[in-house]
Design a protein that fits this description.
Chain lengths: ~425, ~425
């Protein structure tokens, strides 16, 4: 039986799509080298309240190491940890667990000789990553002081570990931020914002296009749940040169050595605020500020924030457009559009931050930061998702429609 | 903050910047606008006015006015009805398929049929033009009782008064099922992709990659709703000569439809416990490879049921569940050097919903993921598989509370499809 299993595994490894297939700049759902959970929220006051779940899946028979990085909504990394995936593995994570100090338990063959922590099936490879000695399996619980800092960082409070603030304080106790997951070649304490050693020839990041997964926002107390595929960012060595837009470009001086395709800059989304969907529509957005954001003094805002955007146009179902320009004739320069002021956020269409005069229609968002603003236009990539809600009944979530790629950004939105 | 309409001069700018079709990468199955939209599966409970139904939207991403051709297909792939849809620049049209099965048509009209701009109004950024070919077609009248009865019968597996034959599966309920395609076209015509004159030189289909949209399954009585983007199929008239295409079966594999095809292999997660106590439904559209015509009621097309060439269910420890060795279907493809696993025929039609793990083929896991490979078996030497295109989505359901739906993960592309199943 053992021989048969070994034979099957060998065959599976041979047949398995090593890098699967990468068509860069297309933003499709093919397995990728980086996954982006564009926005998360966890209600820390209510154990039965809103939380965010996500899954990590390995599309290949080859065992891999991933580096999970938690970022605040302003783009400060606060925690990273390795997750080991045997071939074809799936790991599901509830971010409420993370904010309760409980991390995912996985271990490579070297730390798990009896195969009890990361068991595997007959098609799946299980190997030893010596670099994970002492790191995997992760400790049963985060230290209390670190956990308090983590919770503070993601609710806009002062974090003792970071020595300041790292996210927005929206006056509630909801942890917010985003998550990236990269394939790496070793267990590491580094994050993509390390100046050296994460990407490049001696870096830990790899170009294995094998990750897929999904995410859910679940609010049991309101009977809401919606979700979507995690954003898959494919790596393509050699495809990007100095000056090209890449997903982690801001951390590699736009050298292209992260090899990750960028997202889009212009997005379209439908919205409804009536009929079955009486709860209206939220937009979820992740944006690239173009900056390496460090912890900052509480009560201040990091340089470059709030983020503005190049344009926003709302259409009703008869294509009548409106734009947030406050006059009809001889207008002064338009007020900056600050619907999504952070790197990760949620905005309710029709709410105070995103007023629209229609109940049905669609919006076009050019999320590039205007050249006259605090950033550089060329590299301001983004991702947008749509959540439509029926009050207290159900909600539907899906990705918005990209109208370009940061590989070849459109320069104009109606 | 005050609101204002922008001045018309912007429309001039717009003409220079956005009039051309969106750039399309034609192998990746991404969410950018396409020349064809696919609603992979729909269902409408005809017995309950507040029962489950399917909604969808069609959006024009360009300033240029366009015509689209909407085609309803039964779940076995028989085109049952087609109608034109006019979209001014940046238009959005929303549909509830229940309305259609009740005989109510959406009203649109190009400038030639709508000189007062009351049927298809537009905004300042949007082009509105006249399509003279649409005289007599638009605005679309409501369905005659005969045509409405035809639609309801064709999509519930009953004898259609128009066909005097059947076109779909009879599942023993009164739920209309099928799928739907929407193509950009150059003129109004009573044609479907299955007809000569649809593609190629002089054909009505165009390659304007400007369509986007979404779809929802809504079941108000059960508090369920889930949805996803409509599948956007990009067109490139020069890219597919002699190659696989989405409508390849209707153009004899010539590639003249210019539409990217879908991949044959998919991965999808499933959950059948915890918050999602009602398990996971698979939504599957697949290509039978056949041009299907109405057939005598009581029998099925000769290719029916379709089989799933390989499926493997993995639990969260990657233990594979491989189907039992007794073939479940008499359509087992026959001898081969290394016989493949027995086929699964629970996805027998072109458009399907399957409550995975509970219908016919139970799976012993509550959490995990599923590998699916769609192909036909070549029964003549040198034997082997011929991959067939498909699309897979999932809907995870919490009893009477909520559901979550999203697309599966394609493991190859229609341009370079996996030539054989992944698992030995």
């Amino acid at each position: 039986m053992k021989a048969r299993c070994a034979c099957l595994l060998a065959a599976a490894l041979l047949l398995a799509p090593a890098g699967v297939f990468a068509e860069v700049c297309s933003l499709d759902n093919a397995p990728a080298a980086t996954l982006l959970l564009p926005y998360f929220e966890v209600d820390l006051d209510n154990p039965g309240g809103l939380t965010t779940l996500f899954s990590l899946n390995n599309a290949s028979a080859t065992a891999i190491i991933t580096n999970v990085v938690i970022w605040t909504d302003l783009g400060v990394p606060t925690l990273n940890f390795p997750v080991y995936l045997t071939g074809y593995d799936v790991q599901t994570l509830n971010l409420r667990d993370v904010f309760n100090g409980v991390l995912q338990h996985t271990a490579t063959a070297g730390q798990d000789p009896s195969d009890t922590i990361s068991p595997k099936g007959m098609y799946s490879q299980d190997v030893n990553f010596a670099s994970c000695q002492g790191l995997l399996p992760l400790p049963a619980a985060l230290p209390a002081s670190f956990l308090a800092s983590l919770r503070a960082a993601h609710t806009g409070k002062s974090s003792a570990v970071l020595g300041g603030c790292a996210g927005r304080d929206l006056g509630d106790h909801v942890a917010r931020g985003y998550v990236t997951v990269d394939t790496v070649n070793q267990c590491t304490l580094r994050t993509p914002d390390f100046l050296a050693g994460y990407f490049g020839p001696d870096g830990v990041a790899t170009d294995q296009n094998v990750l897929w997964g999904d995410f859910f926002y679940v609010d049991p107390s309101n009977d809401y749940a919606d979700g979507e595929n995690l954003v898959r960012i494919e790596a393509s060595p050699g495809a990007f040169k100095q000056g090209d837009a890449t997903f982690y470009g801001r951390y590699v001086s736009h050298s292209g050595i992260d090899h990750r395709e960028p997202l889009a800059t212009v997005w379209a989304s439908r919205f409804v605020a009536g009929g079955e969907f009486s709860g209206g529509t939220d937009l979820i957005a992740w944006r690239d500020s173009g900056r390496i954001v460090k912890p900052f003094a509480c009560g201040t805002t990091p340089f470059g924030f709030p983020l503005v955007m190049a344009a926003e146009v709302t259409f009703d179902e008869q294509e009548h457009p409106v734009t947030p320009i406050p006059c009809d004739f001889l207008c002064p320069p338009a007020a900056p559009v600050t619907i999504f002021p952070a790197e990760a956020g949620r905005a309710h269409i029709g709410g105070p931050d995103f007023p629209v005069p229609f109940n049905f229609g669609w919006v076009s968002l050019d999320l590039k930061i205007p050249a006259g603003g605090m950033g550089t236009t060329q590299f301001n990539q983004a991702w947008v998702g749509t959540v439509m809600k029926a009050r207290g009944k159900f909600s539907v979530g899906f990705g918005a429609t990209p109208l370009d790629s940061a590989c070849a950004p459109l320069s104009f939105v109606p | 903050m005050g609101w204002t309409l922008r001045c018309a001069v912007v429309l001039v700018l717009l003409g220079f910047t956005v009039a051309s079709p969106m750039r399309a990468t034609v192998c990746a199955l991404d969410e950018r606008p396409g020349a064809t939209l696919l609603l992979p599966y729909f269902e409408v409970d005809l017995d309950h006015a507040d029962g489950r139904t399917t909604l969808f939207s069609v959006n024009n991403a360009s300033a240029t006015a366009i015509l689209a051709n909407v085609v309803l297909w039964t779940d076995l792939g028989v085109p049952s009805f087609t109608f034109p849809l006019y979209l001014t620049g940046y238009d959005v049209q929303t549909f509830n398929l229940r309305d259609l099965f009740n005989g109510a048509m959406l009203k649109t009209a190009s400038a030639a049929q709508d000189p007062l701009d009351t049927v298809s109004p537009k905004g300042i950024y949007s082009q509105d033009v006249g399509f003279s070919s649409c005289a007599g077609f638009l605005p679309q009248p409501d369905l005659t009782p005969t045509l409405r009865d035809h639609l309801r019968a064709a999509h519930t597996g009953q004898s259609s008064p128009v066909w005097s034959a059947c076109g779909g599966q009879n599942r023993g309920d009164h739920v209309a099922r099928g799928y739907l395609t929407i193509d950009t076209v150059s003129r109004c015509a009573v044609l479907t992709p299955a007809d000569a004159g649809y593609f190629g030189a002089g054909g009505v289909a165009t390659s304007q990659n400007v369509l986007w949209g979404d779809f929802f399954y809504v079941d108000p009585a059960k508090n369920y709703a889930d949805g996803d983007n409509l599948i956007r199929l990009k067109a490139d008239p020069a890219a597919f000569a002699g190659k696989r295409t989405f409508y390849g079966r209707y153009v004899n594999g010539s590639g003249t439809d210019g539409r990217q095809s879908l991949p044959p292999d998919w991965a999808a997660r499933f959950i059948a416990a915890g918050s999602f106590s009602e398990g996971t439904d698979l939504i599957v559209w697949r290509d039978s490879g056949q041009v299907v015509h109405p057939f005598p009621c009581g029998i099925k097309p000769p290719w029916y049921p379709l089989i799933v060439t390989e499926y493997v269910g993995f639990d969260e420890q990657e233990h594979p569940f491989i189907p039992p060795t007794i073939p479940l279907s008499d359509r087992y493809p026959g001898p081969k050097a290394a016989p493949p696993p027995p086929p699964m025929d629970q996805l027998p039609a072109e458009a399907n919903r399957l409550q995975f793990g509970t219908e016919r083929q139970p799976i012993p896991y509550e959490f995990g993921w599923l590998y699916l490979y769609f192909a036909t078996f070549e029964p003549t030497p040198p034997f082997g598989y011929v991959p067939t295109q498909a699309w897979v989505g999932v809907a995870m359901k919490a009893g009477g509370r909520f559901s979550v739906g999203f697309g599966g993960t394609p493991l190859s592309t229609g341009c370079t499809p996996a030539e054989q199943p992944q698992f030995p």
